[in-house]
Amino acid sequence: MENQWGAVSVNEFLDALYSKEPVPGGGGVAALCIALGACLCGMVSHLTVGKKKYSQYEEEMQQIIKRALFLKNKSAMMIEEDAKQFLLLQEAYSKTAQTEEEKQKKQQQIQQALHSALKPSLYCIRTANDVVILLEELLEKGNSLLLSDVGVGAECIGAGVKSAWLTVLINLNLIEDKALVTQIREQTEKTVIDTTKRCNKIYEKVEGVLCKTKN
């Protein structure tokens, strides 16, 4: 079954997500959240360039536009990659094994598939951290009329990074190489915690400014 989630409409994606089909699933939603955060970076920077009030940040905004597009495209690719890897894992689990040799081979294939299934979500976690860097810059230099969008972007990234972490954990729990599991958990958890804290800080700053703003 071939899935090209980048080519479907929002409603088609939502219908597929709602259905009994296993993909797209939580990993795909995590990647989508991060892509949405990157898109908001692109929107805010697009609507900051060319404004006299923010002329001193013109070069920075142009760089954010390019970087946000790259991160958006990469995150969107992970939606499809996550679905692909899940189906390969499902295929490995469904193989018939009767002899001891067949059982060992099946288990090896499952372990290989589990390792591969980690990759999209691990990439999403790294990407989330990259998007936060853009959001932090936009918080200070972006068009203030779009401040709420920066806050929404931070919430998208916060949800995305934590969701991707859950997808990593459920696969790690099934991997037999405990040394590798420990290494990935320790390295990745630090990034997740740091990114989440930074997202929360952005949101709190945005909310604080908007609460003080007189209507």
Written overview of the protein:
With 215 residues, the chain is mostly helical. The chain has a single domain (17-94, 112-208), classed as Formiminotetrahydrofolate cyclodeaminase monomer, up-and-down helical bundle (Four Helix Bundle (Hemerythrin (Met), subunit A)), CATH 1.20.120. Helix content is 79%, strand content 0%. Helix 2 (26-46) runs parallel beside helix 4 and helix 2 packs antiparallel against helix 5 (147-172). The termini are far apart. The mean pLDDT is 94.
Average pLDDT level: 94
- How would you classify the helix and strand content by structural class? mainly alpha
CATH superfamily: Formiminotetrahydrofolate cyclodeaminase monomer, up-and-down helical bundle
Q: Total helix count?
A: 6
Radius of gyration: 20 Å
What share of residues is helical? Answer: over 70%
CATH class: Mainly Alpha
Ends distance: 53 Å
> What ranges have pLDDT less than 50 throughout 5 or more consecutive residues?
none
What percentage of the residues does DSSP assign to strands (E)?
A: under 5%
Query: And the CATH topology?
Result: Four Helix Bundle (Hemerythrin (Met), subunit A)
| H and E order | HHHHHH
CATH architecture: Up-down Bundle
Short structural description:
By secondary structure, this protein is mostly helical. It is built from six helices and no strands.
Topology:
Elements: H1 10-18, H2 26-46, H3 58-94, H4 100-141, H5 147-172, H6 178-212
Helix pairs in contact: 2-3, 2-4, 2-5, 3-4, 4-5, 4-6, 5-6
